[in-house]
Amino acid sequence: MKIAAGAEGECSNHLRKSQCRNGRERRLPRRKTSEIRPSFADLASYINSDDEAFLALLQRCSLVRRNLRCKTSNCRRNCNLRRRQSAVLGHVFFCIRCRKMYSVFDGSFFGTLRVPIRTILSLLWNWVCEIRAGSSAMHLGLPRQTVIRQHKYFRDVCSWKLSEQPDLFLLGGPGHVVQIDESPTKQKWIIGIYDCTSPKGYAAYIPDRSSETLLQHILKVVLPGSEIWTDELQSYRCLSVLGGVSPYTHKTVNHSRYFRDPMTGLCTNRAEGYCSRLKGMIRRLGVMQSPFLPEYIDMFLWWQHFGRTAADRFRNVLLHISEKYTF
Ligand SMILES: [Zn+2]
Predict the structure, then answer these.
(1) Alpha carbon of 99 to ligand 1 centroid (Å)
(2) How remote is the C-alpha of 168 from its chain's centroid?
(3) Same domain, 59 and 156
(4) Last residue of a domain, one of 97, 113, 129
(5) Where in this chain does the record put each ISXO2-like transposase domain (predicted)?
(6) What is the average per-residue pLDDT within 285-311?
């Protein structure tokens, strides 16, 4: 969505109000969060603008609060937004009764971070472009540890969004073919489950390839009625007799003879490809042995669902930040 420059924020003290005309102010209708998706171009055009216009944009995107009630227990008065040169983005919320000031980032994603917001947005753009922490640190003149910490906050948003929408990973169902494959990493394994009919996938970090471990993930994400294709690993045999009558139809391909059955077309290539894409990302980011690998898998799954392109990722991660940090 394009946001017209200067449409809001021209009133000197009240960013919620769109214009001052003869002393009368018109309030803008409150927009739904989902309607506001800033693109990189929107933010890039504002990033070098003055603090007031930039703050107004952040408020319209629901990334920063528009109002704040005083936190003094016997006050709770609505604070005014006031200019204050030394404050973040040149403004504070001010309670005229208690004379208390509050940061404009109070309660927001950016309130806990120690890096200036314009730098965070540049860092976020680098992150969605899969630029490694070391390169990003050099580019932005930040300590590498700071960049690593910020990346973790971005991944936390991805993990939160996935936990909010568990239905995203329901795969298969009647008439669907679901392929399953496991792929080794340096320490453990990754299971890849791919619905060839939808098409969409799921991946998780697993400690071993036992029936119990594999079944735990299969039962969680594969809907009854699916036709499941796997290799002939013994752990999958239980899929045919689950609880006496299996909810799945299970077919196997013998990988010692061929990768794709020439007669039936049976294979696990799509699931293998899904795991390879995940491992490719992990390798590019240089985090193959990271103790945070499960978080990187969440990030990959989030990218698969919400950000095929860097622009989509940038828009959606900001949208999900605005959903997670509500005011
Ligand atoms: Zn007060």
Answers:
(1) 7
(2) 13
(3) no
(4) 113
(5) 170-315
(6) 87
